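Box 3.1. Reading complex inputs
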Amino acid sequence: MFQKRIIICLDVRDGKTTKGIRFEGNADVGDPVEMAERYYRQGVDELVFYDITASSERRGIMIDVVRRVAERIFIPFCVGGGIASVDDMSEVIMAGAEKVSVNSAAVRNPVIIEDGASRYGSQCIVLGMDVAADESKSSGYGVFVDGGRVKTGRDMLEWAKEAENRGIGEIVLNSIDTDGTQEGYELHATCILSETVGVPVVASGGAGKPEHIAEVLGIGKADAALIASMVHYGNYTIAQIKREVAASGIPIRQN
Amino acid sequence: MIAVIDYGSGNLKSVELALRHLDACFKITSDSKVVAASEKVIFPGVGEARHAMNILRATHLDEALCDFAASGRVLLGICLGCQIVANHTEEHDTDLLGLLPWDVRRFSTSDGLKVPQIGWNTVIHDSSLLFEDVSPESSFYFDHSYYLPLCLADGTDSPWVAGRSEYGVPFAAAIHKDNIWATQFHPEKSGPRGLQVLRNFVERIV
């Protein structure tokens, strides 16, 4: 049976895992390589690393993290944050990442999606999309860039469809409104996005307890759920989360 | 020594790191002479079938792989490498190596299925050598839009399905015919069970 994925997200700044609320006030929570290895052993399905280091000269630190992670864990992982060219993609893929995530750069220069997909295949190129409620948009959600700080004026569904046509293999939907709140995912946005595109949709932002995950994978129609705070702060283990989500009838990998 | 085929597309890094983790003796190569001299071959891959076949033909790796298979030495295909041993694929209407009379099809999106299949799926396997010490219903990581159905090109049931799975339709998750082995899933990305499958190929299958 095909199983829905639970993905742990690690925001990495200057080589340390960090976590904020609504994209702000980040605090260090540990070493990303050690954390990745721990989550791997606990049975997580996939990992995502976002490089939130602002300066490009510190990029080498992130590449070193990717390399060390790839040597120790044998499940897929994606790297995003500041990917602005096919060369940037190559750098993280050659360091051992399975997928790369593009966000702001893809909005500004969408052809990066075609370039990446033709070089590495669509399955390798993930679109990260930061959205917030915006009544002026036909879907009710607008797209933001630069860590959620800059409004693009684009509609969530319109941009998602364009990105799909350009060859994106998967979409991670980050809700700015629910990020880090641990009060639950943005279910409506996730659901309409998943019904609109033919590629898998990963819900992100707002997971606080296993019920939230079951909700977004069920009525939210997400194909995967991203979690961070609820495991980084030791409130839950992956095994515990998976057991509880599976108990609500969602197909989840238990072995 | 295991020759890991580098056909210039897709990413070999994860296969390389997994083999290194297993202390396997291997060499990543696009040289048909190295392939001819190796004991085993791993054909890894994500990538597009026509592009891959074009490169294999241009570098004569297609002949080297067919000769290798005909010599009886063991070969493991992964993902695209599971499809490349077949006859033909719907992906850009491409002829493949033709080691098995099998046709590769595309998953249909008609019933709301997301394509590619990205994620973990249960594989029911036949307990062959490749699955030694792997529990009968284990999950592995898949990432593909095309698949080998359970029947061959002539419509008869394939006798070479070593593991089956389902994504809208039943499909071959692992195949085995004599010295030819292949997995549609990525053992190098399927956690400890995936590593066990790779270890079985490296250590137990000769």
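In summary: Residues 18 and 188 of chain B are 6 Å apart (CA to CA).
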